[in-house]
Amino acid sequence: APNPPVTPVDPAASRALFERAQAVTPGGVNSPVRAFSAVGGTPRFIRSAQGAWLTDVDGARYVDLICSWGPMLLGHAHPEVLAAVSAAVARGTSYGTPTEPEVELAEEIVARTPVEKVRFVSSGTEATMSAIRLARGFTGRDVVVKFAGCYHGHVDALLASAGSGLATLAVPGTPGVPESSTALTVVLPYNDRAAVEAAFAAHGDRIACLITEAAAGNMGVVPPEPGFNAFLADICRRHGALFITDEVMTGFRATRQGYWGIDGAVEGWTPDLVTFGKVMGGGFPAAAFGGRADVMSRLAPEGPVYQAGTLSGNPIATTAGLTTLRLADDAVYDHISRAAETVKQGIAEAFTAAGVPHVVQSAGTMFSVFLCEGPVRDFADASRTDVGAYAAFFHAMLDRGVYLPPSAYEAWFLSAAHDEQALDAVLTALPDAARAAAQ
Ligand code: PLP
């Protein structure tokens, strides 16, 4: 039987804040997706969060399936993270000197992942930008290869769209990026080995690096086909280019070791450089890039490639990240895995019952739903998702107390704090929301 009708809370206070925000901030937000442009309506301004739940300025509560776009692996306001951060804050918030938590966090990352050395920065964008500079500095080459639909932050050279042919150089993906910034970028279709081979055949001795999301999560979740990352590692090695896996989203999230834990660690290959962010900052601005010791040693002050940051390795951010990673044991990943299975099954049942074409795709504990027939293996496939149906679904879920990503092209995130009560709220909302998507 359908659930009883819901009376959603009128987001009056969010609406008022959004109007004030729009007067002083472009679009009223500090990162575009937050504005609800893709789904319409009023973005909810969140006042507080606890565990799996968000509370907005109108007092409405939502199960959070965004988790700050990935970082909140343990859920919001985890008491041990808060205690560690509060103790760190009391000792002062930034010194611009080396500190112990940086060393400990670097050791933890080196222990969990294939990187031998790591350098901290403050955002994933900085991590990928710096990794590319280092790859160019190390190889003495200038061309960068990336995949359409993979997002690596707003780095000029990576805000690029494919040129007219597969192996041709890219064009700017946004006004403000000069052609000269993308003229050294090649953009290829994801999961397409022939395209990669063609690009290396055309530009092989000029390619400094190939960067890929370890598993694509920014066009919805599109995992690499079996062996694809290993193929990329191999073709890069054969051409003397560096292989960079971007684990900003998947790192310490898809598995304890990131996505590498379910492919490279099993298949026996290692990336030359890896970028991290999100979970490793525990909800604070911290990110990193790391990799082979001989490559990392080319960074200043050990080597000639310049890279720096006033707040890099900030003691509060590194304390939050370190505490989060230390608490993120196998039980945490098992829990999130099981919770993801439960939600994925609920999604499939609800859309099947409502007669809405859909496919749910995963990368470790991350997943997303495409409202189209699957499989979705690249950006062209992902673009077939029905964004209108998603908007209706999104608002029906929001009205029923579930805050999904306000865009059809985003991964859904769960946390260790998504308990039975939170999952029940999601499962209860899904059937009605799927019917809303069918209309
Ligand atoms: N790389 C990936 C894979 C990401 O998902 C993101 C952000 O979503 C970034 C890089 C950029 O990170 P940031 O937003 O911290 O600059």
TrEMBL record:
It is found in: Cytoplasm. Its cofactor is pyridoxal 5'-phosphate. The keyword Signal does not apply. Its EC number is 5.4.3.8. Keywords: Cytoplasm, Isomerase, Porphyrin biosynthesis, Pyridoxal phosphate. InterPro entries: 4pyrrol_synth_GluAld_NH2Trfase, Aminotrans_3, Aminotrans_3_PPA_site, PyrdxlP-dep_Trfase, PyrdxlP-dep_Trfase_major, PyrdxlP-dep_Trfase_small. The modification N6-(pyridoxal phosphate)lysine is found at residue 278. Pathway: Porphyrin-containing compound metabolism; protoporphyrin-IX biosynthesis; 5-aminolevulinate from L-glutamyl-tRNA(Glu): step 2/2. It is an enzyme of class 5 (isomerase). It catalyses: (S)-4-amino-5-oxopentanoate = 5-aminolevulinate. It holds the Pfam family Aminotran_3. Belongs to the class-III pyridoxal-phosphate-dependent aminotransferase family. HemL subfamily. NCBIfam families: hemL, PRK00062.1. PANTHER family: GLUTAMATE-1-SEMIALDEHYDE 2,1-AMINOMUTASE (PTHR43713), GLUTAMATE-1-SEMIALDEHYDE 2,1-AMINOMUTASE 1, CHLOROPLASTIC-RELATED (PTHR43713:SF3). HAMAP family: HemL_aminotrans_3. Homodimer. This is Glutamate-1-semialdehyde 2,1-aminomutase. The gene is hemL.
